[in-house]
């Protein structure tokens, strides 16, 4: 989903509704899913923004169990909508599987391996194809080793400077 630097029309925001302030880990995902129902996205192949990863950033620090479960909550609520196009509903199993993979990744980062495995199991039962994808493998490796690799990168950069 779009990250920092996204540009959209005010009418898209008015139609989709405001940011859900109850969400802490993935409010942008939920917002962009609602906006996507209103029209097409266009990718601008240029770097428009950047963000900094540090030990307290949302991207880097371990998510609480509640925050790690947000992708499942968001997708469950989204799939219950009555206005979803039929082409999207045909991908419901893959969407549900991806939500569980995302939550598994966040739980792995936080060291909650048992919960991550249970979500990986749900993802598998929803869509084996999704779980066996390269994207899923990268997500699980990131969940297991992402924080370690980021620490190495930061230490190397500090030494280099």
Low-pLDDT windows of residues:
none
Residues in helix, %: 55-70%
User: SSE order in H/E notation?
Assistant: HHHHHHHHH
Morphology call = globular
Q: Number of DSSP helices?
A: 9
Instruction: Report the biggest beta sheet as strand number plus sense, adding barrel if it closes.
Output: none
The chain-level mean pLDDT equals 86
Radius of gyration: 17 Å
Structural class: mainly alpha
Q: Please indicate the percent range of residues in DSSP E strands (runs of 2 or more).
A: under 5%
Total strands: the figure is 0
Gap between N and C termini: 33 Å
SSE layout:
Blueprint: H1 10-16, H2 27-36, H3 65-68, H4 70-79, H5 86-89, H6 92-109, H7 113-126, H8 128-131, H9 134-160
Explain this structure.
This protein is mainly alpha-helical. Helix content is 61%, strand content 0%. It has nine helices and no strands. The radius of gyration is 17 Å and the shape is globular. The mean pLDDT is 86.
Question: What characteristics describe this protein?
Answer:
single chain, 161 residues, mainly alpha, 9 helices, 61% helix, globular
Care to give the gist of this entry?
The chain is mainly α and 161 residues long.
């Amino acid at each position: 989903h779009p990250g920092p630097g996204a540009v959209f029309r005010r009418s898209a925001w008015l139609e989709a509704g405001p940011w859900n302030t109850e969400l802490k880990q993935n409010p942008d995902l939920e917002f962009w899913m609602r906006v996507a129902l209103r029209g097409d996205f266009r990718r601008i192949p240029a770097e428009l923004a950047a963000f900094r990863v540090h030990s307290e950033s949302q991207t880097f620090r371990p998510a609480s169990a509640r925050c790690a479960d947000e992708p499942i909550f968001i997708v469950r609520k989204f799939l219950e909508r009555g206005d979803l196009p039929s082409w999207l509903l045909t991908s419901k199993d893959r969407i549900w599987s991806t939500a569980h993979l995302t939550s598994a990744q966040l739980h792995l980062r936080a060291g909650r391996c048992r919960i991550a495995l249970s979500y990986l199991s749900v993802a598998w039962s929803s869509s084996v194809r999704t779980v066996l994808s390269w994207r899923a493998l990268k997500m699980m490796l990131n969940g297991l080793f992402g924080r370690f690799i980021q620490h190495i990168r930061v230490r190397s950069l500090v030494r280099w400077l």
